[in-house]
Amino acid sequence: MGQPKLAVRHLNKTFQSQRRPLVVLQDINLNIYPNEFVCIVGKSGCGKSTLLNIVAGLVPPTSGQVLMDGVAVQGPGRDRGLVFQSYTLFPWLTVAQNIGYGLKLQRLPKPERRQRVAYYLDVVGLTQFAKAYPKQLSGGMKQRVAIARALANEPDVLLMDEPFGALDAQTKEQMQQFVLNLWEQTHVTVLMITHDVEEAIFLSQRIYVMSAHPGQIKAEIGIDLPTQRDMELKLTPEFLQIKRQVVHTMRDRLEPG
Fold it and tell me: Which of 3, 150, 161, 168 is the most buried (most CB within 10 A)?
């Protein structure tokens, strides 16, 4: 498959506490190839968010490396866009201003900035809400703005941390379909973490399953499903068989050794 766009090599993270060191991540190794959509799935507390924050350059590892195109990550960078569970929008800025915020920091010329904001407003279907403020939007719309803001910086990899965890079930499914369609349209490389097994299977081409205490990669599971997907896919025998495999992998204890 060639060189991975994003690679994690022998990554460990230990937090120091007054009682004893807490090992959160142990010997994490994974590869994300160009234009892939990969999910990391695991129970709450397994270290998924810590891993994503290290990949984003927000938290340093205790040891090991994160590599972008073979170059070690030293901190945050424009090559990695990040979308959190909370929308993290600026309430005093309009939708268009939120999307263009990073471009303004980059001092992109105004005409180019307006053009790019308009493009991503169209991509996420929010052109008519360009002048609206976050308080006027639904939860799903706010998350679409957050995704558009991350994509407007044209990152090499989009990192998503439980992006639909705060949404109701119906909106969550709508956003899953939206993100899948968006990925098919843009082919941005995506690494997303979630504890929702169905979400991970529906969206991704590969899944890494994590175990907890300490967080380790327990298994890598390929998702052999059609590229074109809709919600009916979740009811098919093929989907349910993969779900059974992932759930059993998460449930079984990691073998010693």
Answer: 150
Cα separation, 144 vs 154, in Å, equals 15
**Domain ranges for the chain:** 1-79+166-235+249-257, 89-154
Q: How many helices (H) and strands (E) does the chain have?
A: 8, 10
Q: What is the mean pLDDT of residues 237-251?
A: 94
The answer to pTM > 0.85 is yes
* 18 Cβ contact list (under 8 Å, min separation 6): none
Is the domain spanning 1-79+166-235+249-257 CATH 2.170.150.20? The answer is: no
Kindly give the pairing relationship between strand 80-83 and strand 6-15: unpaired
End-to-end CA distance of the chain: 30
* Strand 37-41 versus strand 206-211 pairing type: parallel
Strands in 22-32's sheet, in edge-to-edge order, are: 22-32, 6-15, 63-68, 71-72
| Residue position matching structure tokens 């900035």 | 113
Q: Tens digit of pLDDT for each residue in 72-82?
A: 999 999 999 99
Residues 6+ apart with CB under 8 A from 220: 30, 206, 207, 208, 209
Length of the chain: 257
Residue 72, phi then psi, degrees to nearest 5: -65, 135
